[in-house]
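Input sequence (378 aa), recorded before submission:
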Amino acid sequence: MTAAPFIHAAPGPADVALRGVTKAFGSDVVLHPLDLEIRRGEFFSLLGPSGCGKTTTLRIIAGLEKPTAGDVLIRGISMEGVPVEKRPTNLVFQKLALFPHLSVFDNVAFGLRMKHLPRAEIRRRVEEMLARVRLEGFERRAISQLSGGQQQRVAIARALVNEPAVLLLDEPLGALDLQLQLHIQQELVRIQRASGTTFIYVTHNQQEALAMSDRIAVMNGGRVEQVDMPVALFRRPASEFVARFMGQTNVLSGRVRETNGAGVRIEAAGLTFHVGSAPGLVLGQPVKISVRPERLRIVPPRSGRIVLPVERAVFQGVTTLYVLRLPGGSEISVSMLASPQPLPGPGELVGLVWDDDAAIPLGIPAHARESERARVPA
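Predicted structure, token format:
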């Protein structure tokens, strides 16, 4: 999709800041001390598997959960003791909680009427918001007459019409089919760009986060593993968990065999890779590397840097995933554009080639990742 995943909010003041926020239910710590800053006007995603703490973090920002320790600041103001209804936030859940007995107009106007705004002001703001979410002409439509995507846009309009500083979205697309998810992703980015509102989006779906976000925080076990822009997060993961969670990859155990001014040579599972500047690596050091399947290629055996047997080949539509057996007995996956030629069968020998710089060292120090980030192309 073309939803501008590499357009980022400029560094600036934090709209939301978490300072040492923790959460425990009895002896069960679900959120370890968390420090996080989300910039004004940013589309920021909290990404991770179920139970990682992302929804708990969102609920703490909203005021639905009280942190065990720490503080949440919104535009520099502490939210300690501020109830949900007084916070400059609005929340959109997967279950939209629209009022089925009210029209589209009345659903969107509900919060404004609760504030006792003048009728003319309510009408103006509702009509402007419905135009922004492309629902002009639907004002009198019943909720039951809308598609799932249209209902989603009504829920977003109802949240944004109150002009919150921050819109919180908790897996709002989870109940939609794939094609509708892709469409609403584009709509969400368009609405966020048009409104300039800070969005904090919770999801377990890597594709969603990569497609929409300015920055992403990958969470695991109640901790943030890495915060970065989508392209840097994908190409320069800080840990094995991030590498695996951000898409299919091969994680190989190897050792540093050479270090010089040109970079570092790593040997792993019979394959040799070169990486650029990696100050955290020294000669002889064991290291794990991530090699994405699309950075490897299958060629005729005589043209390969190594010849390996095919374990299986899985046709996936646009691409084919090949699983090859390495000399030590482990497997390596290769992803290539699907070919009209017959797929090699189990046991057939193929050649494997790769770019020298296909490997990403995992677990290198944070300062080394910072120096590499400037070289990650957008």
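Checked by second reader. Residues 178-195 form the longest helix (18 residues).
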